[in-house]
Amino acid sequence: MNRRLRPLAVLATAAAAFLPLGACTATPGGDSAADSGSSATIASLVKAGQQTDIAEVEKSLGAPTVKPDTKLCYVTRTLANEFWGFERTGFEAEAKKLNVASQTFAVNDEASITEQLDKAQSAMNQGCSAILASPISATALDSVFTAALAKGIPAIVLNDAKGTVPGVVYVGPDAETIGLTAADYIATKLPDGGKVAQIEGDPGSSNALNRGKGFTAGVAKHPNLKLVAAQTAKWDTNQAQTIATAMLTANPDIKAFYSQNDTMALGVQAAVDAKGLTGKVIIVGTDGIPQAKKKIADGGSYTATVSERPSTEGAAGVKTALWLLDGKTVPAWVDVPAFIIDKDNVAKYPTGMP
After folding, report:
1. How far is residue 61 CA from its own chain's centroid?
2. In what helix (H) or strand (E) does residue 291 lie, and over which residues does it extend?
3. Contact predicate 165/39, CB 8 Å
4. Does the N terminus or the C terminus of the chain have fewer Cβ atoms within 10 A?
5. In the predicted model, is pLDDT for residue 161 greater than 50?
């Protein structure tokens, strides 16, 4: 993606113009008041550098308290990608369960940083008590997060693009660990080693960059594995099929593919099948979408997926926002670890996403 971003100073000014005047402010001890200079207060509730599993956070903080007139807003990515649909479902279902007003803002173009920034600014103009988002790139929404925190509005990133703005909470897995997990899994399936290839997501995506970094490092740990090809398919099934076909033509002895999401892995499987290599090439995807799990259950080349937990992440984002609004201290990283789904455990996950 080669779109240029406007200078951050300009974006921050634009984002601030959209902020509601009477936003809720969290203060230690649980009091709430309108305050235009409370970013330090919100930041003080977020333990910088601390990473804690969601189960431990819930055990420690308990059920969140809902303050009157609270409204949570989620700025997601395209719902054409069912993964983000499950993230949205987790967010909205938990908000409904806790009787909290919520609103989702989704983009049409998976790669449009400008469109998502506009959606985030619009969300901030809707009287949000907290802003949750899944940024397309690591810094895409930093101006909005910074302006939100300045108004005492918690800012929470769900799943992608864990950023560096102090006071922003990240809820999700470690993308590098996901790539590393895929490499280690492939190594167990190829005890004699062999050539492997990687199908990458959009180069502007933090998830793509970090999963790739983790996978490359993982392959390097196993001297008998050799990464012979890596190319972006920008999260697209058809592009992935075309690229995987070319890779197999150039290296017909490829033993395994790692795809940075399941949507692309479906394209890889189509390429493998068309080459008459069904069951002879390992395919590991990422995310754990229902279609991928069905393919795994059916047998063939689709071997495994490093499954994330978007429904859990969406719900955890709601709880985290409410804890902050209640003045509770939370870790800067609420960890929702991913895990391998293959033929051995796929039957445990027949529908939806955890």
Report:
1. 24
2. helix 290-298
3. no
4. N
5. yes
Instruction: Please tell me the predicted confidence (pLDDT) of residue 181.
Output: 98
State how far the Cα of 71 lies from the Cα of 63, in Å rounded to an integer: 18
pLDDT of residue 163: 73
Which regions of the chain carry the CATH code 3.40.50.2300?
8-172+311-336, 175-307
Tell me the whole-structure pTM to 2 decimals: 0.83
Number of C-beta neighbours around residue 314 at 10 A: 29
More confident position, 326 or 23: 326
Query: What are the tens digits of pLDDT across the range 55-67?
Result: 999 999 999 999 9
Residues 78 and 84: beta-carbon distance below 8 Å: yes
SS3 percent helix, strand, coil of the chain, rounded to 5, is 40, 20, 35
CATH 3.40.50.2300 fits 8-172+311-336, yes or no: yes
| Length in residues, the chain | 354
With a cut of 70, say whether residue 107 has pLDDT above it: yes
pLDDT at site 2: 40
- What does each C-alpha distance from 175 to 76, 100, 211, 290 come to in angstroms? 18, 30, 5, 20
CA dihedral 266, 339, 140, 93 (to 10 degrees): 90
Task: Write the single-letter amino acid at 301.
Answer: S
Q: Tell whether the torsion through CA atoms of 123, 129, 134 and 135 is positive or negative.
A: positive
Phi, psi values for residue 136, rounded to 5°: -70, -35
Scan for tokens 């998976």, then name that residue: 110
Into which CATH architecture does domain 175-307 fall?
3-Layer(aba) Sandwich (3.40)
